[in-house]
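Researcher: We plan to redesign the surface later, but first we want a full-length starting point. Tokens attached.
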């Protein structure tokens, strides 16, 4: 009998879902090799041949079985969100939401709901880089006692389009261009900006996409959003609107664009590795689930339509209540079986959660099952272990590809008497799902509601809410992306759109493109019918009543911890061992990680002749893979590092990407070889001459303390070259 995981982990049950998966989990440890039919294989090295020099015989069923299985090992990748990674965890509720929803897992604070979460990029294919400028998918499957609830969200709270019918166009535009399949995992190309420049409704989302939110430091450090307005339904059948949020406990942090591009080369698996290692190291990523609840009576109180997925509900207008915490505590056992085969669907809801008429959400309700039918090959994908609910499934659906369940009895229809009427329909008291009885009294019509016609107010609100460095990054991102567009009219059209958001934004991007901002003109939304009146847009320019919303900027995020941050310590033979010890101890105490990097791998000898193990050499390491750098002293070590161009490059790059750098006072020789040597303090006693985030100090206790504070601050953006951006 193959040894299942159950054998070694049963007393250590993490969740009912993990227990459920155990029956399908298998280890080969200590086992004999067999065919798929259980036949023990004696020789897996040689095919069956007529003589030792061939030819190979058709009879060789072992060869054929092995090759045939191999030939069929691939399934179509997801049409969007193909590149992703996932983890198991649990959700724990802080307080009951019984007054607004009857969903069991949001009522009972004693229950722990198992979850499986998949993070992804959107545009790239399975093998593309993690650090593409892109939206990140944030899909959570809750295995509740009432069936699976999937919260299939993104790390940005709004979307590009208002109606599902535009989704294939959007995705065709952003994916690599069809004639030459270039570029991979990038929006910086003609077809994307052609489409966007004709879709003013995308403007708000484009602001998010050009912001640093699109290049997160880690999946563990990004927010998640349900995007659409959903409904909560309580026991009395009353409905409230709800927006879902995930708030990461480590704060929201990003990398620099130049850094992102470098990471894509040095470690395209950067986010995947980061999540995996954090979980393996027991530094379990955590998010709080937040809800914004809006009574039905307030549906029309806002200056935007709650059904419009290009709008968010500012937290200043409706505060986010944090109602529970999700902890990711276990990596999958098998990427394909779990991460690749997991099938999310916005239509997987439980009683107490329902949909609104958001036209994007309505289209999604069709798409997700449809796509799994192709991707997973048939209608029984719910039986795949990772997709299986933790509560039993009983219905009259039968057969189909790869059916696992053996349904006994001859009845597979309803109503029936031969099967005793089973399975019975569930009454509301038994937890039977009923759709919210929303009153609809309308003409059937192919039309966009006028309440969806304001495309700029929240784009402007977003821009106004950013700090200066964040605004600079947005300008740079537009200039980069449009700079990759060859067709002049597309660039000009985009500048026209940007001028509707903010004049200074448009003029700064224009300057970088060597263009003038076109005369303000209302962009025409090509998604109105051919005979529609584009001038209608003119009348619905709305000015947001909020000047700014702090929650939209990342500057105010949590900066009080260096937990799980990774610090590079640059050393060579002759390093001062006491410095290394003091720093590594202090970092470890704060939950940070570190790696010792030297001109060669193996070990180095410290100044007092102690062997110190090295993690990486300058050949394998890169500053972009670290959050901060420390250079300990020691005469010979300092001399070697100064003579090592890769070491100087490492420090220069960390400086360029605005990272904290700490150095012992006797390392000046190394620091003076950097391009920022002019910024170095001339007098170490005069702290005022120190550049922020650049800490040079001879007292190791003071150094470690200041460094830890600097690492927690994440980045020192003012270090980027000064720009003159009018407010
Ligand atoms: Fe998706 N989306 N989507 N989407 N989506 C898919 O389903 C689709 C949208 C999101 O890790 C697909 O299983 C349409 C918004 C995530 O497995 C597909 C529309 C949001 C994931 C699909 C949208 C999302 C997907 C592709 C417009 C944020 C990855 C593979 C009407 C709220 C889930 C698959 C995972 C995946 C369709 C818009 C999030 C084709 C038609 C808005 C996180 O069904």
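Model: Full-length starting sequence:
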């Amino acid at each position: 009998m193959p040894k299942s995981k159950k054998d070694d982990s049963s007393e250590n049950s993490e969740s009912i879902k993990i227990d459920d998966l155990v029956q399908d989990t298998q280890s080969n440890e200590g086992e004999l090799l067999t065919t798929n039919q259980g036949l023990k294989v004696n020789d897996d090295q040689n095919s069956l041949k007529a003589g030792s020099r061939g030819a190979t015989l058709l009879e060789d069923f072992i060869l054929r079985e092995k090759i045939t299985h191999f030939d069929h090992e691939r399934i179509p990748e997801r049409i969007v969100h193909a590149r992703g990674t996932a983890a198991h965890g649990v959700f724990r509720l802080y307080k009951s939401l019984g007054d607004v929803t009857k969903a069991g897992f949001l009522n009972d604070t004693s229950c722990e709901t198992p979850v499986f979460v998949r993070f992804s990029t959107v545009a790239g294919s399975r093998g593309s880089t993690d650090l593409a400028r892109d939206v990140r998918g944030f899909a959570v499957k809750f295995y509740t006692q009432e069936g699976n609830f999937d919260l299939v969200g993104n790390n940005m709270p709004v979307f590009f389009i208002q109606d599902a019918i535009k989704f294939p166009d959007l995705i065709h535009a952003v994916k690599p261009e069809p004639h030459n399949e270039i570029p991979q995992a990038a929006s910086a190309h003609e077809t994307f900006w052609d489409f966007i420049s004709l879709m003013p409704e995308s403007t708000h989302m484009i602001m998010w996409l050009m912001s640093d939110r699109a290049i997160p430091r880690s999946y563990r450090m990004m927010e998640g959003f349900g995007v659409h307005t959903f409904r909560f339904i309580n026991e009395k059948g009353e409905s409230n609107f709800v927006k879902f949020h995930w708030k990461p406990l480590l704060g929201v942090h990003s990398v620099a664009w130049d850094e992102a591009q470098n990471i894509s080369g040095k470690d395209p698996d950067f986010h995947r590795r980061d999540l995996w290692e954090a979980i393996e190291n027991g530094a379990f990523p955590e998010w709080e689930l937040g809800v914004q609840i809006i009574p039905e009576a307030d549906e029309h109180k806002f200056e935007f339509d709650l059904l419009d997925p290009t709008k968010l509900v500012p937290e200043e207008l409706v505060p986010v209540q944090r109602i529970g915490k999700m902890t990711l505590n276990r990596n999958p056992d098998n990427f394909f079986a779990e991460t690749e085969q997991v099938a999310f669907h916005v239509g997987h809801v439980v009683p107490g959660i329902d949909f609104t008429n958001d036209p994007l959400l309505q289209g999604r309700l069709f798409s997700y099952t449809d796509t799994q039918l192709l991707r997973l090959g048939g209608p029984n994908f719910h039986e795949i272990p990772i997709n299986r609910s933790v509560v039993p499934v009983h219905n009259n659906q039968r057969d189909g590809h790869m059916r696992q369940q053996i349904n006994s009895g001859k009845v597979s229809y309803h109503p029936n008497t031969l099967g005793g009427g089973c399975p019975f329909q569930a009454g509301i008291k038994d937890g039977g799902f009923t759709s919210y009885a929303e009153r609809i009294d309308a003409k059937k019509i192919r039309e966009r509601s006028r309440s969806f016609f304001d495309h700029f107010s929240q784009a402007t609100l977003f821009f106004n809410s950013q700090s200066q460095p964040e605004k600079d990054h947005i300008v740079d991102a537009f200039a980069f992306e449009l700079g990759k567009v060859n067709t002049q009219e597309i660039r000009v059209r985009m500048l026209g759109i940007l001028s509707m958001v903010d004049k200074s934004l448009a003029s700064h991007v224009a300057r970088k493109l060597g263009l003038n901002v076109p005369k303000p003109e209302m962009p025409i939304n090509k998604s109105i019918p051919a005979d529609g009146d584009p001038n209608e847009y003119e009348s619905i320019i709305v000015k947001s009543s909020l000047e700014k919303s702090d929650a939209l900027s990342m500057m105010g995020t949590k900066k009080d911890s260096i937990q799980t941050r990774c610090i590079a310590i640059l050393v060579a033979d002759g390093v001062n061992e006491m410095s290394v010890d003091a720093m590594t101890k202090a970092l470890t105490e704060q939950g940070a990680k570190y790696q010792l990097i030297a001109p060669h791998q193996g070990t180095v000898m410290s100044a007092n002749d102690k062997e110190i193990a090295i993690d990486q050499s300058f050949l394998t390491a890169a500053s972009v893979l670290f959050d901060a750098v420390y250079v300990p002293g020691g005469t010979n070590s300092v001399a070697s590092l100064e003579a090592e161009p890769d070491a100087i490059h490492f420090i220069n790059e960390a400086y360029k990407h605005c990272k904290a750098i700490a150095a012992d006072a006797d390392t000046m020789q190394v620091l003076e070889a950097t391009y920022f040597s002019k910024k170095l303090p001339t007098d170490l006693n005069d702290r005022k001459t120190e550049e922020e985030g650049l800490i040079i100090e001879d007292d190791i206790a003071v150094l470690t303390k200041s460094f830890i504070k600097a690492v927690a601050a994440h980045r020192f953006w003012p270090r980027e070259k000064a720009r003159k951006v009018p407010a």
